[in-house]
Amino acid sequence: MHLLMGLLMNTEEALLFIEKLLAQQGYRLNDLERAIFRGAWQGKSYKEIHRNYNLQVSLDHAMRNVGPKLWKLLRKALDEPIRMKDLQGPILRAYAALAASPAVAAEIPPEVSPTMPDSLTSAPIVSWEMTPDVGIFCGRNPDLADLREHIDVGGRLIVILGMAGVGKTTLAIRLAQQVQDQFEVVIWRSLSVNRYESLAALTQDLLRVFGQLPDEPPMSSNYITNLWHYLSRYRCLIVLDGLEAVLQTSSDTGSFQKGCEPYGELFHRIGDTYHRSCLILTSRERPQELANMGRGEHAPVYIHPLDGLGEQAAREMLLSKYDLEGSEQAWSLFVRLYAGNPFALNIAASKIHDLYEGDIAQFLEVHAQETAIFGEIRSQLSQQFTRLSPKENVILTYLVKAGEPVRRNQILHNIAPRVSNEDLDQSLQSLMGRSLIQRNNGHYSLESFILEYAQELTNNQ
């Protein structure tokens, strides 16, 4: 009987059947899980599935995490042991048992095409308000794969952290576009553009989008409770771009501005409580509220530091927009001059194209004598430096004067005014969280173009 039913139930029919079973338990498969199920139903190994379906995660992650989680879900739904190599038997038996039961036979279409609930099969509700055009996307595929993997394994709070202009917004947009079909509601909001005066104002905006769902609206006077009503009942993806807009300036603690403290309460609830939604944040600074929340390779809270582009990716990005020429050495010096920062590289490349006939070496020769910090590059750095605390400024001034990488104890004993060990650690952690300093082999230093701007500020004091 199983052989005959196996011939009649193809891969997609089997997938639809188990999706209906899992939906009854409130779970929806993601694309990665569907790919593994399809391959396993056809008798393929993990290695064959990884190759044939072009999975966006490592083979090891698929074998150790995604697959075992899927078989555990099916074991619970079918109430019998499930093995990858013997997948068809338990599923066909479950189908046969349901089909033989008069009480539920009518629920299974004769074509074996069970459907998901309307809220799961229809296109997601999408609200992309003030979302910029990402344009060329280069060199970020490893970052994209890492972030998708964390969403696939149930990441609930993801923070993309990096300095101004490094490409956080572009990466977040591309990520949301790639995973949006896994969600029922997808919302993008820019905190720096919209300038919500409080979480209550943001929540009121989000609830207008959630109002499109076929659900009775919550009636609580607590706006976080009202928002949680939807985040816990539906699979929602919310992207908040530019979190630093609601963080305090002149502080190295990553604290929220007055009136914005409830953001911390929301983040804790999202990170610490089980649900199927996901909140993605982009920020130039690390919020203090996330410091003690559970993190790890596959933890529900994940902070993804974003560095500058590599030389090849930066070159590909710039040549898609500008007619530039230069030797391998010139390209390498140019990209390293701006630490691979896409925003700074684009501003400089535009100047090279317009004023230096596309000659990178000529630009480097001129700016070896003059500053390479100009125009919008200076404006971006000014915005970031304005947010520094007095202690952070003291540390940066010392790093500029030192002129070389220094150890922590050197900073502790030589900066003036002196600070405690605790204050020093807090400020160093904050500066690294802002991507303004780097640490290699226990030594702290500044990226070249940040060093140049900091020297300007020091000389003008």
TrEMBL record:
InterPro entries: HTH_VMAP-M9, NACHT_NTPase, P-loop_NTPase. Residues 156-315 form the NACHT domain. Transmembrane segments: none annotated. Residues 9-87 form the vWA-MoxR associated protein N-terminal HTH domain. This is NACHT domain-containing protein.
